[in-house]
Write a structure and sequence with these properties.
There is one protein chain. The strands form four sheets. Strands 5, 6, 13, 14, 15, 16, 17, 18 and 21 form a nine-stranded mixed β-sheet that branches. The chain has a six-stranded mixed β-sheet with strand order 9-8-7-12-20-19. Strands 1-2-3-4 form a four-stranded mixed β-sheet. The longest helix is centred in the N-terminal third of the chain and has 21 residues, at about 15-35. It has two domains: about 5-115, Double Stranded RNA Binding Domain, CATH 3.30.160; about 125-345, no CATH class. About 20% of the residues lie in helices and about 40% in strands. Strand 1, helix 1 (about 15-35) and strand 2 (about 40-55) form a beta-alpha-beta unit. By secondary structure, it is an alpha+beta fold. The model is unreliable at about 1-20 (pLDDT under 50). Helix 1 (about 15-35) packs parallel to helix 2 (about 95-115). The chain is built from five helices and 21 strands.
Length: about 350
């Protein structure tokens, strides 16, 4: 079998050259082995190093020094000139283990692409919808987190609607276990903010620009010096439950299990939320029985109040990129798998 691979760099900052050389060699060897043993395709990989160094001063002294470095590994998989798969992963460090995890994810992407998939069932209203820990974190970030940013919340007519109470099992913290002390305005960060506790909204995220509406929580962030400081999420923690995902899945008679979702879109004025689900499986009598064709979830946040959410005991940490008003920053979420009752009618 003839194999081709191309390793390219969109940006390369050699902060730790030895580690980079070692990791890139590992990546090439593993990728070459993967291509030879599995499929015939061309893979393009870009490794970008993002380094943000910030020194904050008050009127006469040093306020704080912040140094953030992370890595973006993006890849495109083509076959016969046609792009099959494109995605990226955000890593806090580059080493043998992190590279291996990315390669495993690439292999899983390829296997999923070529797997046989079934169409969606017809009676979806009766189906429960389960999200793995990665998808539930992204779902919570997009569907709930952005609504609780003050500049969004008070611009939306939805904040004048009925009392905002979600599932009594839902508890979310923001600015969770972070090393930073000051935001990009130089204002102190309020850490471990309980945004939602037992389904009740307690706090919003705010920065200096919108503190007239809410206490300034120090969530002013910007991508770089050319961009304005706006209110952004930083690190979200969704509180897990006490029972394992496996036990909960065994109890589902008919359900859809979501492995991977793309970036969502929220309309802050109407409450509409949409997201593409690229990887999902059918659950029948507590077992995964088939892969499902991609579909979309369409939700209205007002119809989410009466949804019962089951939180599993597993909890995993993920890093991603978040775009808002043309600016992109790194975000983190720590989340468990969740199961939502009565969400099947949102699937299309």
């Amino acid at each position: 079998m003839t194999c081709r691979y191309l390793l390219c760099f969109s940006l390369y900052i050699a902060i730790y050259p030895g580690i980079f050389v070692y990791s890139i060699n590992v990546l090439i060897k593993l990728l070459h082995k993967l291509i030879e043993q599995t499929f015939h395709f061309e893979t393009k990989i870009a490794i970008e190093t993002v380094s943000n160094k910030k020194i904050l001063y008050d009127s006469d002294s040093l306020t704080g020094l912040q140094d953030e470095v992370y890595y973006i590994i993006s890849y495109n998989i083509d076959q016969f000139g046609i792009n099959l798969i494109s995605d990226f992963h955000v890593l806090e460090r580059i080493n043998k283990d992190s590279i291996h995890r990315v390669l495993v994810k690439i292999k899983n992407e390829i296997n999923w692409f070529f797997s046989t998939k079934k169409s969606l069932p017809k009676d979806l209203d009766s189906y429960k919808v389960a999200f793995n820990s990665y998808s539930s974190g992204l779902f919570s970030h997009e569907f709930l987190g952005h609504f609780l940013e003050t500049d969004h919340f008070f611009r939306s007519p939805l904040n004048r609607e009925k009392e905002w109470n979600f599932s009594r099992h839902l508890t979310i913290f923001e600015n969770f276990h972070i090393p930073e002390t000051f935001d990009d305005n130089g204002d102190p960060i309020t850490k471990n903010i309980p945004l939602i506790r037992n389904g009740e909204i307690l706090h919003l995220l705010s920065s200096r620009l919108d503190q007239q509406h809410s206490h300034n929580t120090g969530n002013g962030r910007r991508e770089n010096l050319r961009m304005p400081v706006i209110t952004r999420m930083r690190s979200m923690f969704v509180q897990p439950g006490k029972t394992s995902e496996e036990k909960h899945i065994e109890s589902i008679n008919k359900g859809i299990y979501i492995h991977k979702i793309g970036m969502g879109e929220v309309n802050i004025f109407t409450g509409d939320f949409s997201v593409e689900v690229s990887h999902a499986s059918l659950i029948e009598a507590g077992q995964f029985t088939a892969s499902i064709e991609p579909f979309h979830l369409y939700l209205d946040i007002r119809h989410f109040f009466d949804k019962e959410i089951v939180f599993c005991s597993n909890s995993n940490e993920y890093h991603s990129l978040c775009g808002k008003k043309g600016a992109t920053v790194k975000v983190k979420y720590i989340s468990p798998s969740i199961i939502i009752e009565g969400l099947g009618n949102a699937i299309q």
